[in-house]
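Try this one yourself first.
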C-alpha cells in the first residue's frame, strides 16, 4: 500500500472487446476507490491498438515509455485485429514490448471455479479448482534467436533457440515458492519435459531442486508437460501453485481457465516483482473480433484483473470487495453475460458488479 494511497494508472483499452470491457474495469476501480478510501489518477492512452497502426504504421509511438511515464501500474484491455494487422505484429509491438521493457518476468493467472460458472469438467464444483499458474514471461522458448536458411528451397532449414538463464529461471521459481508460502497447501508443481528436451529442461529441473531447498516448508513435485495437461483436466484438485517456462506456461495458463469455465472471466498479471518498473494487469481473453461491437462481452476478466492490480498495491480489502461483488453477480442469471448462459449485456453486468462493490 502506498503511503498516500493514491495510484497513478495507465489505462490502455486496445482493440475489439478490449474497448468494451475496459470501461467496466474502470467503473469497478472507481467504485472500489470511493468505497475503500483510496484515490486514482487514471491516464487513458490511445495507442497499442490496430487503429493506431493504421494511422502510423506501428502499434505504439517511439516514445511510448515516456508517454506512459512514472505510473504505479498499467491496466490493459486486449489487443489484435487480424483483418488489419497480423497478430504476430500487433502482439510483438505492444504487449510483448511491455513485458520485456518493464521486465515483467512473472505472468500470474489464478485458476478458480467461481459459483455460477458452468464447469466443463464433469462433476466438479467451486472448491475443486483453485490454483495459480506462474509462467516465466521474458525468456525460454519465446526468443528471437535463430535462423532461416535457403528459404523456399528443398534445402530450407529453420532454427529457433530456447534461452534459459540461471537468473531468469531462479527468479520465477522463487516467485512461485514465495506464492506457495501464502497458501494453505504450500505446494509447487513444476512443468517439465526433461525426457525429451535434453538440455534446457534438465537444467530447469535442477534449478527447481536447488531453489526448493531454500523452502523446506514448501513441498514440490514435477510432471512432464504432456501428462500435466491431462492432469489439469482429470485431477485439477491436485494443484496449488504450478510453475512453468514461457511456452509451457502459455499453454497451461489457457488450459487452466478453460477448465474453470470460460476465458471471459479469467484475469492475469504481468508482474515485475522487484518493483523497478510497473506491472501490467489484463484479462486472459483476446479482442474477440467475433463478438466485438455487440455489447455482449463478459467484463469479469477485466474487473478481476482490477482486483489483482489492487492486491498488488496492497489494497487487499478493496480487492476482496471486488471479488465478493463478482461472485454475488455471477450467482444470478440476470447478472451473467450470454457466454455464461445469462441475459446481461456488458454494461449491465459491469454496473451490477460496481453497485455491489459500492454496497460492500
Ligand atoms: P488471443 O488474442 O489471445 O490470440 P484469440 O483471438 O485466439 O485470443 P479471443 O479473442 O480471446 O481469442 O476469443 C476466443 C473466443 O472466446 C471467441 O469466440 C470469443 O468470442 C470468446 N471470448 C473471448 N473473450 C470473451 C469475453 N470477454 N466474453 C465472451 N466471450 C469471449
Ligand atoms: Mg486474437
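Now uncover the answer:
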Amino acid at each position: 500500500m502506498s503511503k498516500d494511497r493514491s495510484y497513478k494508472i495507465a489505462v490502455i483499452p486496445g482493440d475489439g472487446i478490449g474497448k468494451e470491457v475496459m470501461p467496466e474495469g474502470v467503473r469497478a476501480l472507481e467504485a472500489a476507490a470511493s468505497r475503500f478510501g483510496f484515490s486514482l489518477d487514471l491516464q487513458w492512452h490511445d495507442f497499442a491498438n490496430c487503429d493506431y497502426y493504421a494511422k502510423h504504421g506501428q502499434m505504439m509511438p517511439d516514445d511510448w515509455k515516456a508517454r506512459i511515464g512514472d505510473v504505479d501500474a498499467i491496466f490493459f484491455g486486449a489487443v489484435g485485429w487480424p483483418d488489419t494487422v497480423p497478430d504476430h505484429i500487433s502482439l510483438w509491438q505492444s504487449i510483448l514490448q511491455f513485458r520485456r521493457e518493464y521486465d515483467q518476468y512473472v505472468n500470474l493467472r489464478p485458476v478458480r471455479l467461481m459459483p455460477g460458472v458452468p464447469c466443463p469438467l464433469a462433476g466438479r464444483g467451486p472448491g475443486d479448482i483453485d490454483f495459480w499458474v506462474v509462467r516465466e514471461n521474458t525468456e525460454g522458448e519465446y526468443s528471437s534467436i535463430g535462423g532461416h536458411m535457403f528459404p523456399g528451397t528443398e534445402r530450407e532449414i529453420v532454427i529457433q533457440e530456447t534461452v534459459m538463464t540461471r537468473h531468469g529461471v531462479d527468479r520465477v521459481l522463487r516467485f512461485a515458492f514465495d506464492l506457495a508460502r501464502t497458501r494453505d497447501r504450500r505446494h509447487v508443481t513444476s512443468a517439465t519435459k526433461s525426457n525429451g528436451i535434453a538440455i534446457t529442461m534438465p537444467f530447469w529441473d535442477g534449478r527447481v531442486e536447488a531453489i526448493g531447498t531454500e523452502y523446506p516448508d514448501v513441498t514440490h513435485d514435477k510432471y512432464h508437460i504432456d501428462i500435466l495437461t491431462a492432469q489439469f483436466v482429470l485431477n485439477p484438485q491436485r494443484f496449488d501453485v504450478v510453475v512453468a517456462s514461457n511456452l509451457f506456461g502459455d499453454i497451461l495458463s489457457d488450459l487452466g481457465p478453460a477448465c474453470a469455465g470460460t476465458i471471459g472471466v479469467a484475469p492475469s498479471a504481468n508482474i515485475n516483482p522487484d518493483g523497478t518498473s510497473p506491472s501490467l494487469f489484463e484479462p486472459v481473453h483476446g479482442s474477440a473480433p467475433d463478438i466485438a461491437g455487440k455489447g455482449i462481452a463478459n467484463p469479469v476478466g477485466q474487473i478481476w484483473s482490477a482486483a489483482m492490480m489492487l492486491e498488488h498495491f496492497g489494497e487487499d480489502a478493496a480487492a476482496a470487495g471486488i471479488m465478493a461483488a463478482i461472485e454475488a453477480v455471477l450467482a444470478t442469471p440476470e447478472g451473467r453475460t450470454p457466454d455464461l448462459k445469462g441475459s446481461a449485456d456488458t454494461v449491465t453486468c459491469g454496473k451490477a458488479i460496481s453497485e455491489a462493490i459500492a454496497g460492500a
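Discussion: The chain has two domains: 1-107+273-359, 119-260. DSSP finds twelve helices and twelve strands in the chain.
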